[in-house]
């Protein structure tokens, strides 16, 4: 392909501003699919993504557009995940492009993720074409929102396009703008040494691991032996293709082109996003810039509710890991919850998506322990350990200092809800960095400890702002903190699954809260039960569960006998899932409930 006729671009947007709808419209306009094939939101291939409206995996589509100058251009549209948890993947997708369409909902305006994504695009030196979407809506105010984009982002909007991805208004103008305003890839000699960026990979039941690439230098061909520079492994390319969005095989991809390869690879763990693929026989001296392995930042334990589901869970975890190289899982055992896995995620949304896939696609009923972040603990002997699990917290006498991860959070919220949002951030140990206004919307920037954010920040933020606040964050640094491990004891026995690491100032409140909840959740026993929260040997909260003879039929007042029988059946069923703590038997459901509120 003539390199001057290629345009590689992404669409960046806040969630729900219309990225997928616009992608569909562009594909349709360029005839990539017949109407019959034109399913809604073709780029979102996984069911869950479609339902949640979140694009997780980047994919790319090659479109052929005949411009007004009569020339046919190749437009490579790269889909990017929109959420902060996947910001590294977004950044790599953007690095594979020369331009981006910035979509802003003309009835909503700039949101936290609009900003985050624009910054990533600017970091990657992309030419940005601003687009105001949903102008068919009566509530659309394109002029006002253009001014907002100029004020907040500093992006010139005099040439911004007004479109409706839904009805098709302005789509032709947009396609023309892509050709005239976006740069073509730098012109390179196709016979140069191969360097292609690995943008994404996923497991396909028929093809094995499919790798999405952007060729930067040289040419990749079927039959070529290639090396992955970060992992050092070599494979022979057995297919080269493009998506239109249907997969179409081609012989080769040259400089500036995007497409996919397969190379008989079994596991996505060999395919690191951002890695450089080069020729095995004539390898490049330097990899492409910017590769960094993704590291999980949020951890939690996942356990089957029914112990007999463990093998099924193990199997499902293996399958998920096949498709998601940023998902980590290791076997773990807990006295309270039995056999399960300690899992690492890129963030809370990533955690939620995996949990949901496990329950939906694999029909597994799971308990998850409270999410926790990675602490760096410096020991007296000079050694530093990364702590993923509160259960592994070392004896305090060996600890010199503990550091926790901090984030820079950007929150956009209508003025009316600013007060409660600031209160929430302060309560979460936040430090305000900036507060600016755009019309009646405030933009606040806070430094916050990630451990407070994984607790219940999202839910609280949504509720105090009635859902109007948008939120985005990036990890910034580790800071020393006065952190303690709070253990929960039942009649003196610590319950591993309920242990948590919290700031000392929050320890008593959290301890009290959880003991109070357990008191309601644990059925009374034949003897008194002490419920305690403790830091080391020091009890900081205590509740006592009084003794009572348990008689489930008491509620029936000697009435209907079948109902009585049913209750007894149910009690028997519940017994099966009891966990023994010293003399105390606790239904697993009590842990589940206790964990729900963190
Ligand atoms: P994520 O996949 O969650 O990132 O969202 P998205 O940005 O891809 O948004 P999506 O395309 O799913 O659109 C969100 C909602 O806005 C859907 O209900 C669309 O039907 C609607 N929508 C998108 N474009 C337009 C438009 O031009 N006009 C109107 N009225 N609605 C639109």
From TrEMBL:
Q: Name one GO molecular function term.
A: translation elongation factor activity
Q: Which domain of life is it from?
A: Bacteria
* SMART domains from the UniProt entry: EFG_C
| Bilayer topology | Peripheral membrane protein
EC number(s) per entry: 3.6.5.n1
Which EC class is the enzyme in?
Answer: hydrolase
| GO process terms (BP) | positive regulation of translation
UniProt protein name: Elongation factor 4
Report the protein's function.
Required for accurate and efficient protein synthesis under certain stress conditions. May act as a fidelity factor of the translation reaction, by catalyzing a one-codon backward translocation of tRNAs on improperly translocated ribosomes. Back-translocation proceeds from a post-translocation (POST) complex to a pre-translocation (PRE) complex, thus giving elongation factor G a second chance to translocate the tRNAs correctly. Binds to ribosomes in a GTP-dependent manner.
Please name the PROSITE patterns in this protein's record.
G_TR_1, G_TR_2
Q: Locate the Tr-type G domain: which residues?
A: 4-186
Keywords, in A-Z order: Cell membrane, Elongation factor, GTP-binding, Hydrolase, Membrane, Nucleotide-binding, Protein biosynthesis
Family assignment from sequence similarity: Belongs to the TRAFAC class translation factor GTPase superfamily. Classic translation factor GTPase family. LepA subfamily. Belongs to the GTP-binding elongation factor family. LepA subfamily.
Catalytic activity field: GTP + H2O = GDP + phosphate + H(+)
One GO term describing the cellular component: plasma membrane
Q: Name one Pfam family in it.
A: LepA_C
- What does the organism's lineage look like at the top? Bacteria, Pseudomonadati, Pseudomonadota, Alphaproteobacteria, Rhodospirillales
The cellular location(s) given in this protein's UniProt record come to:
Cell membrane
Q: Where does GTP bind?
A: 16-21, 133-136
């Amino acid at each position: 392909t003539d390199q001057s006729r290629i345009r590689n671009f992404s669409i960046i947007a806040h969630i729900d501003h219309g990225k997928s709808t616009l992608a569909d419209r562009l594909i349709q306009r360029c005839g990539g699919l017949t109407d019959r094939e034109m399913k809604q939101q073709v780029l979102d291939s996984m069911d869950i993504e479609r339902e949640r409206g979140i694009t997780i995996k980047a994919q790319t589509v090659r479109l052929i557009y005949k411009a007004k100058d009569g020339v046919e251009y190749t437009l490579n549209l790269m889909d990017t995940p929109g959420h902060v948890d996947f910001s590294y993947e977004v950044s790599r997708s953007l690095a594979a492009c020369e331009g981006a369409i910035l979509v802003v909902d003309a009835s909503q305006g700039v949101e936290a993720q609009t900003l985050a994504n624009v910054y990533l695009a600017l970091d990657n030196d992309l030419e940005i074409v601003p687009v105001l979407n949903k102008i068919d809506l009566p509530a659309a105010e394109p002029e006002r929102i253009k001014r907002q984009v100029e004020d907040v982002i500093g992006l010139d909007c005099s040439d911004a396009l007004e479109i409706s991805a839904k009805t098709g208004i302005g789509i032709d103008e947009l396609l023309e703008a892509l050709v005239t305003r976006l740069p073509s890839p730098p012109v390179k000699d196709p016979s140069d040494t191969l360097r292609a960026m690995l943008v994404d990979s996923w497991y396909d039941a028929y093809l094995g691991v499919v790798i999405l690439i952007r060729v930067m230098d040289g040419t990749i061909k079927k039959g070529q032996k290639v090396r992955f520079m970060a992992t050092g492994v070599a494979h022979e390319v057995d297919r080269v293709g493009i998506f239109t969005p249907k997969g179409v095989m081609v012989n080769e991809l040259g400089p500036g082109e995007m497409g996919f390869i397969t190379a008989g690879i079994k596991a996505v763990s060999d395919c690191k996003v951002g890695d450089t693929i080069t020729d095995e026989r004539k390898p490049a001296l330097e990899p492409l810039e910017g590769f960094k392995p993704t590291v999980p930042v949020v951890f939690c334990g996942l356990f089957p509710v029914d112990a007999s589901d463990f093998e099924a869970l193990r199997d499902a975890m293996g399958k998920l890991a096949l498709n998601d190289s940023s998902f980590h899982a290791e076997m773990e055992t807990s006295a309270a919850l039995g056999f399960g896995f300690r899992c690492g995620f890129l963030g809370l949304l990533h955690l939620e998506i995996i949990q949901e896939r496990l329950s939906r696609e694999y029909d597994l009923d799971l308990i998850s322990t409270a999410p926790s972040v990675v602490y760096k603990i410096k020991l007296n002997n000079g050694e530093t350990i990364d702590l993923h699990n509160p259960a592994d917290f070392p004896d305090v006498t060996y600890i010199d200092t503990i550091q926790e991860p901090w984030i820079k959070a950007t929150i956009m919220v209508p003025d009316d809800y600013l007060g409660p949002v600031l209160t929430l951030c302060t309560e979460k140990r936040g430090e305000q960095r900036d507060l600016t206004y755009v019309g009646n919307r405030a933009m606040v920037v806070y430094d916050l400890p990630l451990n407070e954010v994984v607790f219940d920040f999202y839910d609280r933020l949504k509720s105090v702002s009635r859902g109007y606040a948008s939120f985005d964050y990036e990890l910034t640094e580790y800071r020393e903190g006065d952190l303690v491990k709070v253990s929960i004891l039942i009649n003196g026995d610590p319950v591993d699954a309920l242990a948590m690491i919290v700031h000392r100032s929050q320890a008593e409140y959290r301890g009290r809260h959880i003991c109070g909840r357990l008191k309601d959740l644990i059925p009374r026993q034949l003897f008194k039960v002490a419920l305690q929260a403790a830091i080391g040997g020091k009890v900081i909260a205590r509740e006592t569960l009084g003794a009572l003879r348990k008689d489930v039929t008491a509620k029936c007042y000697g009435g209907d006998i079948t109902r009585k029988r049913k209750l007894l059946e149910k009690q028997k069923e519940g017994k099966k899932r009891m966990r023994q703590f010293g003399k105390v038997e606790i239904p697993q459901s009590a842990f589940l409930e206790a964990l729900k509120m963190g």
